[in-house]
Amino acid sequence: MWLTDFAQNLINGTLLGGLYALIAIGYTMVYGILRLINFAHGDILMWGVYFALYAVVAFGMPWWLGFLVGIALAGFLGFGIEKIAYRPLRNAPRISSLITAIGMSFFLESLAVVVFGGIPKSFNIYPKFFNHTLIFGHLRIQTLTFFILGITFLLLLGVLWLLYRTKTGTAMRAIATDIPTTSLMGANVDRIISLTFIIGSMLAATSGIMWAMRYPQVQPYMGFVPGMKAFVAAVIGGIGSVPGALVGGFLLGMTEILVVGFFPNLAGYRDVFAYVILIVLLMFRPTGIFTVYSEQKV
Amino acid sequence: MKRISFKTNFILTVIFVIGSGFMLLWASNSLGDYWARIITLMAIYGIMATSYTLVNGVTGIFSLGHAGFIAVGAYTAALLTLPIQQKAMSFFITPLIWPLNSIQMGFLPATIIAGCVAAFAAFLVGYPSLRVTGDYFAIATLAFAEIIRIVIQNSYSVTNGSLGLKGIPPYTTIWWAWGWLLVTLIVLGSFKFSSYGRALRAMSEDTVAARAMGIDVFKHQLMSFVVSGFFAGIGGALYAHWLTTIDPRPTSLGIMLTFFVLIMIVVGGLGSLSGAVLGAVFFAFSAQWLRIVESPMNFFGLTIPGIPGMSMLIFAVVFILIMLFWRRGIMGRDELSWQYIYNHFSKRVGDQD
Questions:
Q1: Comparing C-alpha atoms, which of B172, B346, B161, B157 is closest to residue B244?
Q2: In B, which residues are within 8 Å of A113 by CB distance?
Q3: Which domain does B251 fall in, by range?
Q4: Cβ-Cβ contacts under 8 Å, B144 against chain A
Q5: CA distance B15 to chain A (A)
Q6: Closest chain A residue to B60, measured at CA
Q7: What are phi and psi of A122, to 5 degrees?
Q8: Is position B52 within any domain?
Q9: How many degrees, rounded to 5, is the angle at CA B274 between CA B272 and CA B275?
Q10: Of A98, A100, A269, the CB nearest to B320
């Protein structure tokens, strides 16, 4: 019986971890290239979900088209945010871009309250097939789990392919080390950074839609907790490392589910674990598990 | 450039403080309860903002955990001043633990204890967090603030959990709030212009150079963090007795409050105490004024429905615009001193240097 509980918790942890990993891939990619903690990542996620919801509910699109539209529009949103708010501050002190990113997050939340209203909406636009529960003996697995795992691995491979097998990816990695030199090498830095943001935002929207399929409630502040958790996952795996984000996401999801599974009276403190892990890691191993060595720029 | 002597400076300041006192007296007697409350809030925000700018502006480390210390101060003071019957009534899920359920004290000692507890919390947070720098420090303090909030939300036997505390006596008057703001400004002002403050400014310009000059960076940063935590706790205590109801939702004593205080100090100019006060006054005033946008308007017989959340959106836009085009804020890193005013006007009038 104990073993069944354990296995069930592992399955639940895989689902949650897959979600965290999916969000963290986008987060870590933007950080790895721009060295900017994009506070607005969770809010772009939220906007992507709203876009998808409205595309289906208000414009009568089929659910898969609505999802694609939501992801594409989130890409546009990311493009706009980078162009308007982050680009002018690229050469300013790093803390200024951080403050602006916080302002951007606050702006996106407030705009969502004004445009969509503060009342939570139900995200029930996808076929019920995904919430179907498969039963193997004592174990229950939601179909969504396989779907999320599949998407996470596909996107991970896609991002890795982009970063390490294409010319654009080489330019992105070059920007991460030295922007002026990259631009001397003939790469269009502005365009590459825009592209990074578009891809990061589309990843955020994808993960947001998956998140909404698991927790089908949409509201303007829904992005904060996934955003923070994804950041923790990214730090666990070594922020900036894409495979690390995957591992970090799974570790974080497993830890949360297992601790709550075995100590149910700690359930209220679930979010605390993630933050404690974050603080401890920042203090003793800020490079995370997958150490990406980078020389400090002085 | 003529330097204003210490004596002139002192006399002008005393006149200014007494003058402001009379202004407040007039305001509290003739502007009505509503505006008296707003003016009180200005001073409370002022205390939160000046203590925040000590860390984020003067010391040059970027914390996002201010709301955590405000929450600690608010809860400590409220638990100490709540009448015993009110405590018995509020804590109906789990009774309040022993020493707290039989204590009731005056406002002043409760506020000071709240400040000390918040300062201790700041020490506990700052000691580990200050080992990391830059944006990692911001994230670590944000995580600590969230931990504080979640712990408050779950400790039913101490803080009444998510039910919050109700019926806190409305002790915070204009005089308490502005009096504490004066104390805060005197303490933080002398701190900023002491040798410690100069060391802080040196560190914020160039940490490596400051360390080479023999400044113990960690010790100075920790000290400024703890002092800031103390006044955040005072601000929280006053805020609790202004609101009379507190709860640990993210929108009341959570990340949202840190956002608000951040807006104040960015408007006022990061690193300026007087700028922080100006930013706080601006924020409290415009938050009230912007309520017009959110309530239905009657415009020549045409009713425009109010838009909920619009005022926050306007603040967010203003905040981003300031970060993009006016990063100096109102005061930059300068202080609104008599010397500053004198220089400003002498530059306008003539071209003497």
A1: B172
A2: 308-309, 312-313
A3: 6-344
A4: 275, 279
A5: 38
A6: A95
A7: -85, 135
A8: yes
A9: 60
A10: A100
CA distance, residue B77 to nearest chain A CA (Å): 24
| CATH number of the domain located at residue range(s) A2-284 in this protein | 1.10.3470
What CATH number is attached to the domain comprising B114?
A: 1.10.3470
Spatial distance between the Cα atoms of A236 and A244, rounded to a whole number of angstroms: 7
Nearest chain B Cα to A99, which residue?
B323
Name the one residue in this structure whose structure tokens are 């009713």.
Answer: B303
d(CA B256, nearest CA chain A) in Å:
9
Q: Tally Cβ neighbours within 10 Å of residue B352.
A: 8
Write down how long chain B is.
Answer: 353
Domain membership flag for residue B236: yes
If you average pLDDT over residues A165-189, what whole number do you get?
87
Q: Largest alpha-carbon pair distance within chain A?
A: 64
The structure tokens listed for B214 are 């023999």
**Burial bucket for residue A4 (CB in 10 Å: 0-12, 13-18, 19+):** exposed
Per the structure, the count of domains in chain B is: 1
Distance of CA B5 to the CA centre of its chain: 31
A111 touches chain B (CB under 8 A): yes
CA distance A240 to chain B (A): 14
Residue pointed to by tokens 């697995």: A141
Kindly state whether A106 is in contact with chain B, defined as any CB-CB distance less than 8 angstroms.
yes
Question: Is A215 an interface residue toward B (CB < 8 Å)?
Answer: no
Considering only CB atoms, which chain B residues are within 8 Å of A94?
134-135
* Helix, strand or coil, per DSSP, at residue A133: strand
Could you tell me if residue B100 is inside a domain?
yes
The interface predicted TM-score (ipTM) is: 0.89
- Residue B258: closest C-alpha in chain A: A102
Can you say how many angstroms the Cα of residue A92 is from the centroid of all Cα atoms in its chain?
26
Read off the pLDDT of residues A82-104 as tens digits, 9 standing for 90 and up. 999 999 888 888 888 888 999 99
pLDDT digit string, tens, across residues B17-52:
888 888 888 888 888 888 889 999 999 999 999 999
pLDDT digits (tens, 9 = 90+) for B55-86: 998 888 899 999 999 999 999 999 999 988 88
The verdict on residue B1 lying in a domain is no
Is the separation of the CB atoms in B113 and B230 below 8 Å? no
Nearest residue in A to B306, CA atom: A114
